[in-house]
Amino acid sequence: MSAEHTEARRRWADFAPLFAALSDETRLGLMDALAATPRRSISSLADQTDLTRQAITKHLRVLEGVGLIEAQRVGRESLYAIRPGAIEDLGRDLAALSERWDERLAALKRLVED
Description:
Elements: H1 3-22, H2 25-36, E1 40-41, H3 42-46, H4 53-65, E2 69-74, E3 77-82, H5 86-113
Antiparallel strand pairs: 1-3, 2-3
């Protein structure tokens, strides 16, 4: 296995927990809510769903654990927001992966057509 391949596998393995966190419909909904109105409390997020505050807390902890959101303590509440740069970092890596696949598919097309 080449060093480049090993490095690519390590980098994408780092993103596996992030993809797993985003694979849940509820967590995607929470990300959408935080994108629309940053610095939201658990109560305000729970008011938009049929989920309990405990369930919302569980999902927020998963998102926070993979670095997508951050909490700021204000008095007795924690306010949640999308962590700056988290989505951009992922977007850059996905764009790089897409570019590599485009190059490989173009090479395959040339090989098949020749």
